[in-house]
Design a protein that fits this description.
417 residues, alpha/beta, Arc Repressor Mutant, subunit A, D-Maltodextrin-Binding Protein, domain 2, 3 domains, five-stranded mixed beta sheet, 15 helices, 17% strand
Length: 417
C-alpha cells in the first residue's frame, strides 16, 4: 500500500536508517541500534539517496559523514521520530510507516474507512489493516466505530497529532532539500486572523513572492481557536494576528510585531460626521468623548478575543458602562458592510479599514480613547524549527510591521492619545 505523499521521497522505514547513520557515524553502529544487519542499513541509505536524488553521505575510511543534504534530512527525521515517541511511545516511533500515519489522518478527517480509502486510492481492507497495525504499534485502541462513523479515542487524538507533526517534519525536510538543490524555494502555510488578513499578511506575501518566485504559500483564515488547532497539528507553520500575552497557551510561542489600537469608526455620511459641518480635511468632525457615542448602536468584537477586551477597557477606563452591542462579529467584511449601510459605530484598527479610509467611505471619529492597545504578532509552536521559507516570511512580516507601525492611519492626521 502506498499512502499519499510517500512517493515524493524516501519512506519512513528507510529514513530511520539515515537518521541513525548520521547520528552514529557508521552503518555498523546504526545496525546495532536498529537491530538490523549492516547490509540492510547500507541498502536503506542507498535507497533513500535514490529516492531523494541526492547523496546523503560521504563514505570515508572510518565511517560515513553526512553531507549537507544528509544533515538536513536526518535532522527532520530526528524531529519526526521525537513527535511519534511523545505521542505514542517508542514502539510507535520504531514501527509506524508512512502508510499507517497517512491512513490515520485520512480516517480522522473523513470519519470513515471507506471515504479514507477513496481519498488515498486504496481498498478499504487495506485501510482497515493499516489501522490495526498502527493500533498494535501504539499498543492502544485509537478508534471507536459507531453507527454514525469512526471517531478517535483520547489516545487516538494524541497519536493523530503526533502523526501529523511527524509527517509535517518530513514534508519540511523534503522542501528544504528541494531548496538546497535549487528546484523549489519551499512552501509556507500561514494562518491569518481577521485583523491581519487585509493588509499585513497580503503585503508581506507580495514581497515574499517578489523575492522568491516559485515559493508556494497556503493561507487559512478563521477563528483563533480553529487556527490554533491547525498550528498545533502541523497544518500551519505560523499564525499572524492579535497576541494573547499572558493568556497564551504554554505550547505556543508569541513574537510581537507592533502595537495596534482600536479607534471609533463610522460611515462617511453618518450624522456624527455630517451634522458637524462639511469640512475638507481628512478627519471626521464630531464628538470628543465616548460618552456622546453611547446613544448610537454599536458593533462589537466577539467575546473572548483581544479586540473585545480592548473594546471593554476603553469604556471602563472612561468610567462608562460597556454598551450593549447590536452586532457581534469577527468578519471585517461584515462589519464594514453594516457600518456603511447604517448609523452603527464600531471600534476598529485603521489597518482593517485602510482602503475604506483612503477612499473616504469610512471615517475615524476624533474621540480620545485609552486602553485599546493590543499587540499584533506571530504565533508558532514553541518547539518548531522554521524552514528557510518560513524564516523568509517572518523577515518580511517584521519589516512590513515596522513600516505600518510608523505610518499614521489613513483618513486621520493624528491618533488619539
Amino acid at each position: 500500500m502506498s499512502a499519499a505523499g510517500e512517493g515524493s521521497g524516501a519512506a519512513l522505514r528507510l529514513l530511520r536508517s539515515v537518521e541513525a547513520v548520521a547520528r552514529l557515524g557508521s552503518a555498523a553502529r546504526a545496525a546495532g541500534e536498529l537491530h538490523l544487519s549492516v547490509s540492510a542499513v547500507s541498502r536503506a541509505v542507498v535507497q533513500s539517496e535514490m529516492a531523494l536524488g541526492v547523496v546523503l553521505f560521504d563514505r570515508v575510511a572510518r565511517g560515513m559523514n553526512p553531507t549537507l543534504a544528509g544533515t538536513l534530512i536526518a535532522a527532520r527525521m530526528r524531529r519526526a521520530l521525537a513527535e511519534l515517541r511523545s505521542g505514542g511511545g517508542v514502539p510507535l516511533a520504531t514501527r509506524a510507516t508512512d502508510a499507517m500515519l497517512q491512513v490515520l489522518v485520512a480516517v480522522a478527517e473523513s470519519r470513515s474507512e471507506g471515504a479514507a480509502a477513496s481519498r488515498l486510492g486504496v481498498s478499504q481492507p487495506a485501510v482497515h489493516q493499516s489501522l490495526k497495525q498502527l493500533e498494535h504499534a501504539a499498543k492502544q485502541r485509537l478508534l471507536l466505530r459507531t453507527r454514525s462513523g469512526t471517531r478517535l479515542t483520547d489516545e487516538g487524538e494524541r497519536v493523530l497529532r503526533a502523526a501529523k507533526l511527524a509527517l509535517s517534519e518530513l514534508r519540511t525536510g523534503r522542501d528544504e532539500l528541494a531548496a538546497l538543490l535549487g528546484s523549489s524555494p519551499g512552501r509556507v502555510a500561514v494562518g491569518a486572523l481577521p485583523m491581519t488578513a487585509d493588509v499585513l499578511v497580503p503585503q508581506a506575501l507580495s514581497r515574499l513572492f517578489a523575492a522568491q518566485p516559485g515559493i508556494i504559500v497556503t493561507v487559512a483564515d478563521g477563528t483563533y481557536e480553529a487556527l490554533l488547532h491547525q498550528l498545533r497539528h502541523g497544518d500551519l507553520d505560523l499564525v499572524v494576528g492579535p497576541l494573547r500575552g499572558a493568556e497564551a497557551a504554554a505550547d505556543v510561542a508569541e513574537q510581537p510585531l507592533f502595537i495596534d489600537r482600536l479607534l471609533p469608526v463610522v460611515r462617511a455620511q453618518h450624522p456624527l460626521v455630517v451634522s458637524s459641518g462639511t469640512g475638507t480635511g481628512p478627519r471626521a468632525r464630531g464628538p470628543s468623548s465616548l460618552r456622546t457615542l453611547l446613544r448610537w448602536p454599536w458593533i462589537g468584537p466577539l467575546p473572548g478575543t483581544p479586540a473585545r477586551a480592548a473594546f471593554e477597557r476603553a469604556f471602563v477606563g472612561a468610567g462608562l458602562a460597556v454598551p450593549v452591542v447590536a452586532l457581534q462579529a469577527n468578519s471585517p467584511a461584515v462589519v464594514r458592510s453594516v457600518l456603511m449601510s447604517g448609523d452603527h459605530v464600531a471600534m476598529l484598527s485603521p489597518l482593517q479599514i485602510r482602503a475604506e479610509l483612503a477612499s473616504g467611505l469610512l471615517k475615524l471619529l476624533p474621540v480620545v480613547v485609552a486602553g485599546t492597545q493590543r499587540s499584533i504578532g506571530v504565533m508558532q509552536r514553541r518547539d518548531s524549527l522554521p524552514s528557510a521559507a518560513v524564516s523568509s516570511l517572518l523577515a518580511e512580516l517584521r519589516a512590513l510591521a515596522g513600516e505600518l507601525a510608523g505610518s499614521p492611519p489613513s483618513g486621520r492626521s493624528s491618533g488619539p492619545s
